[in-house]
Amino acid sequence: MSKLIKSSLSVALAALMSVSMLSHAGEAVAEEGSSGVSYNIGYMSEYWYRGVYQSESSVSFGADMEMGNMYIGTWWADVDKGVEYDIYAGYNFELMGVPMYAGYTGYFYSDNFDGDYQELNVGGDFGFMSVDAAVNGVYDSVSSGAITTKGYQHYTITVPGMMLGLPLDYSYQTFTGELTGFTHEISYGTTVSGVDVGLTLGRNSDDSTGDADNIDTTYANFTLGYSF
């Protein structure tokens, strides 16, 4: 099973996600004809997603079920105030020889850490780059007991370093709509004795969604993961 994540949930975690640490979000491309259930556990020295700071460190757990070209899964992680739990599902297919997917992702949080996010995901792997889009995104922001609904989109372009003979991947990510900001990330991932190891260096913009202390900043993240 080969999965390409430019996302899910992340490409803050692109290095590990690309080697199957986290099936985090619905942005995935899978080989045809596979099926079964898999699980994953992971650790992040800092949790950043789409250039937005989440928590100092985080432990995660996920489960995925694949039925032919269809997939469904969940991913859980501790955040500073509570737990993030994601649900995603989708369908993998080929169009003119290009592996593609279409699916849904929902991001939910306990203890009012954040509002809920729900989006449709589409993307494809063109070899020299992959493109992932979260479209028709809806964010339910909670403030003082009132819920405000905002619309957004998110796009990621990832260029694998192997195309240039480098062990690093580069990604550009941007929000549009009522969420704002763009992010540049460079990621490295490898597997050591069955454990996925990843490093990510990123920089977000001064108009990025998130806390004012964590925008227009450079960040680094170390990740470990194991799938079974």
Could you characterize the architecture of this molecule?
The protein has one helix spanning about 15; strands spanning about 35-45, 45-50, 50-55, 60-65, 70-80, 80-95, 100-110, 115-125, 130-145, 145-160, 170-175, 180-190, 195-205, 220-225. By secondary structure, it is mainly beta. It has one domain (about 15-225): Outer membrane phospholipase (ompla), Chain C (Beta Barrel), CATH 2.40.230. The chain contains one helix and 14 strands, in the order αββββββββββββββ. It is about 0% helix and about 60% strand. The strands form two sheets. Strands 1-4-5-6-7-8-9-10-11-12-13-14 form a twelve-stranded antiparallel barrel.
Mean pLDDT: 85
Overall geometric form: globular
The tally of helices reads 1
Largest sheet descriptor: 12 strands, antiparallel, barrel
**Major beta sheet, strand line-up:** 1-4-5-6-7-8-9-10-11-12-13-14
Radius of gyration: 16 Å
Specify the CATH class: Mainly Beta
Separation, N- and C-terminal Cα atoms: 12 Å
Summarize the structure.
The chain has one helix at residues 14-17, and strands at 35-44, 47-49, 52-55, 58-67, 70-79, 82-95, 98-109, 116-125, 130-143, 146-159, 169-177, 182-192, 195-204, 218-227. The chain has 228 residues and is mainly beta. It has a single domain (14-227), classed as Outer membrane phospholipase (ompla), Chain C.
What keyword list fits this structure?
228 residues; two-stranded antiparallel ribbon; mainly beta; Outer membrane phospholipase (ompla), Chain C; 12-stranded antiparallel β-barrel; 1 helix; disordered N terminus; globular
